[in-house]
Amino acid sequence: MAVSSLLSKNNSLPYSTKELTRGGWPKPIAEVYASKGGTPHLDRRHTVFGQLVDEASYEVLTRSQQLRLLQWINRLRMLLLRRLRL
Predict the structure, then answer these.
(1) Could you tell me the pTM of the whole model?
(2) Which of 17, 66, 70, 73 could tie 34 with a disulfide, CB 3.0–4.6 Å?
């Protein structure tokens, strides 16, 4: 199983807005999960484990790491620009 399939969102078991709001999710967020899919019980709280089995898996992992690095660099750049403006 490639990493990309592990990271894909759950579209086969849709949640209802009512079910998600009963579970404590704010209504606007529940509506997005109900309409677009996803796996709310895994978001930002859990680690997804997987196995890298082919070259495509490694490419997905590398792109993910590069994106995180670019996001961190952009945040740092913005902080430096704000300090220079003060």
Answers:
(1) 0.38
(2) 17
